[in-house]
Records
---
Amino acid sequence: MSSPNAWARRRYERGLVYTEQRIGGAPLYKWALRYVFPDHWSFLIGEISLYSFMVLIATGVFLALYYVPSGHQVVYHGTYALLRGQQMSEAYQSVLNLSLDVPAGLLIRQVHHWAADLFVASIVLHLLRIFFTGAYRKPRDLNYYIGLTILGLAILEGFAGYSLVDDLLSGMGLAIGNGVALSIPFIGGQMASTIWGGQFPGNSAFFSRLEIMHVFIIPVLLATLIGVHLAMIMRQHHSQFPGPGRRERNVVGTPMWPAYALRAIGLLLATTAVLFLMGGLVQINPIWQWGPYHPYLSENGAQPDWYIGWLIGALRLMPSWELVIGGHTIIPEPFWGGVAFPSFVFGVLFAWPSLERRVTGDHRRHDLLDRPRDHPTRTAIGAAFFSWVFAIFAAGALDRVFFRLHLSYTGQVHFWRAAIWVVPVIVYFVTRGWACALRRSKMHPLRGWQGEIVHHDRWGAVTGFEIGSDGPDPEPTEPPTGSPPDG
Amino acid sequence: MSRVIGFLIALRTTWRMLRGRGPAGDTPPPDAAPHAPTPGREDPSRRELPADGRHELWVALLLFAAAGLALSFIAVLALDKSNTQLLGLAMGGALLLLAGATILAGKLVVPQETSVEPRDALLVPEAAQEVSALVHQGGDGISRRGLLVCAGCVAGGAVAAAAASPIASLGPRARVLHESPWRRGIRMIDETGQPLAASEIQIGSFYTALPEGEDSELFGAGLLVIRLPTAMIHLPPARRAWTPGGIMAFSKICPHAGCAISLYRYPTYGPTSTEQPAFTCPCHYSTFTPADGGNVIFGPAGRPLPQLPVMIDTSGNLRAAGIFDEDIGPAWWGTRRA
């Protein structure tokens, strides 16, 4: 061992002794260093959400140092010639200055925006993975509820974030948000008037309120829930797919130190790298092109960030049903698409684990994951449900289809009002048939692996060959009755 | 920058330490327990790697290259602050190289092992019973337990309600939602502040009007003003006098979700066309026909577009001839409907 390394190791051990004398965390460190991660690509999706959240915090702090939360109207005299002399809010002016004058300001803002899109996208993909592999079953149902709450908060956080800018696009989004809040039966009027401090677009304190939601309240909730989410995973250990040597009561994989830690840091860096490359090279939300918001202005072709698309789709598809009794608007129209629809979707997702337990009578603990075809009915219901949500999401972009393909917008809306009910039925039967066929064939989808395993000793000398294939599964790793009745 | 360098040194040091630790740590039995997999069923992802100097060299090269790109980020920032593309390339590239180095190190340089850990039984019945007993013992000897719990809940609820009640001061009572700046006699001006003259209003276009002397940022401020051929207009009897010379005014705020309406379609193509002039909101494409008083012909809006009576003053400018007889903006519990 060369002497610089010996020196580094001595330094490190001295530091360890220092903290041990004061905290005594060695057993915990040892446990954490030996913590086992099962290897599967789909487990990395959740990690990507965590890493994009870290990028959001880091870039968000930078943005918050420049943002002025004020709706006070001023006249712009900044560097962007096309907007000079225009009346705009101080909030919008501060984001213009941040984007056009602050060194690296636009880069950081675009990285932040891309990271927000990636954050929600990876949570949704993670949710799909959890759903279709049955990872929400006991004991992980509690953590699944936390994950769903994180998703709901993430959507709200993203909406609050791009609403802060007070450009034309965000003003239109806030107007719709106000309309949706007003539409809540009985309490909506007072609720919106309380949040906005009066009639839309709100009193002078509104942007301070929105900012404190976006930079403090929701991020603290998110960080806390993410911490609890991870702590619960580590307490229960990761679930794992069935495979050789993998059982309900063990976990097989790569220990944290050193290989997994390096790979995880690598994924963190790769996620950040992609976000910085996108933030530098791919323009997102060019706010100077939208111009300032005033309540009497709007623009055609406004599309929200993708994770609001399902709500826009629902608001656009919904027929004009308004329930009015005795002069009182009991249920204003935006309630259906803006409140009832997302509440239903989240309600179904929250209720699913206990619904499944009740229907199947399976109250056992599960630490081995299902492959989607193992439960054709669950997979088919899930695929149908998510295709219903996705069809409504896609219907939010019908105006783009009209622009590109000149298909009548009204015709498309009438078609999709019916089609969103037909699509899930077709998806249900196709998925179910597919899953059952796969189960019968015992094939492994997407993995026609066939090859030769070469065994080495640790010095690289070949010790043996073996013809391998991804053929029929090994015998069931644990008989169904063998699961311990844990609670 | 110092962070990056610090990270590089730390990474290098830890990695060297691991190399120095020798082979003892990297050959655990994968599954020592009773269920050891049969040799023919080994997981093909399990592998042992020989130490290979080339991989270590690659990692070091990637790390140095990352340092170079990170330094170039600072250089770009110093020389050309507004070059978002170069900044993104430099930082993204540096991070990408770092990612490559760490993943390469994680996969090819440090020892690879597959390890097996048992899972804990989460529910240990005795432990749960002990907890339950401890909690229960805390109430030993208390006779009026129900009363105390009840009183505690009442007190907690009341204090929570008191603590939450200042929320009410965040906003005024919902009746402010009825407000609109338009009253009889208020002159209509355009976005530049010039009065709108009746003679300016052409058939086939729409104009945005704002109330003179009022805050143009108010929700109800914006109006859509159009002129239609009088033969085309079919209004209820009560609104007959609202459209002098075929000039009509409507709230610009969509009664569906509150966006400003900014699309107007005036069909000029032939007498056989059944299309009527119509306003469309660009948010959810609610479509209203002004000729019959703003009725909804398509889209989600639940009620017609509110109409404002118009008059032409002696100097030929447009003024409001009254108030909206219904609320503008999205519907809520207390919305006044026409």
---
Amino acid sequence: MPKPAEVTLPSDREVRVTRTFHAPRQRVWDAHTKPELVKQWQGYEGWDMPVCDMDVRVGGHYKWRWRNHEDGSAFGFFGTFTEVDSPSRIVHEQYFDPGDMDFAMPVGDPCIVSLELDEQDGVTTLVCNLAFASKEARDGAVSTGMTDGMEHSYGRLDELVMAAA
Amino acid sequence: MQSSERLDLTFSALADPTRRAILARLATGEATVTELAEPFEMSQPAISKHLKVLERAGLISVDVDAQRRPRKLEPGRLGEAVDWIERYRQIFEQNYQRLDALLEELQARPSKRKRAKK
């Protein structure tokens, strides 16, 4: 079993997640950049991913959307790839799509999500860094999970989860 | 105070190595300002400043009834900050466990290209 994910707070407005995978880097890269693979793991228990459009190149856009199995509620993320260096580094600017609109519109400043993959002896280390526009945005994006209205805060929590990709 | 504001205070209080060292010291038992200042080679006012930040964040408290006014750790608030990170970590971890399974499946499955060659 790989070591569990580690979460650190490198600065006031960042969150960093580190995780190892017992697989070659190229395969981990594919799982993050090929929609048919992304759909199979990225998400949440009880949600499926009807929309997963990704144009993986610098300046290319992506759109992800999840739908709840039970009540049909939806939310997602969308954004633009700003760096693509296969199979080691990808950076995108991410906006939250609260799901109550027919189309996604940028609201506020994006979260800059960078993913770095490094392979040593067939083990790939993933470092995912989320840089929010402010400390308030970072803490607000997850601290709602503290308030026990868990179901309703899943959207915000998922923002960070999905940003892992 | 809202939980997000409390977390702001907690995390900024924890973002300093001296203050973390003070917390580590207080985890072994209560201590006065003089006792806390000693190992850090800092002036008492400098230590007091750090203690005020920790106190405001709810990470420590002062026993005002005791003459020595010792400081002690308030583990609850620290736990809340740890929970925040832990909750966050678990959500990533759930995703990554699904990814582990997918990677294993891809490993076991011969790639389409290989199959086509046969």
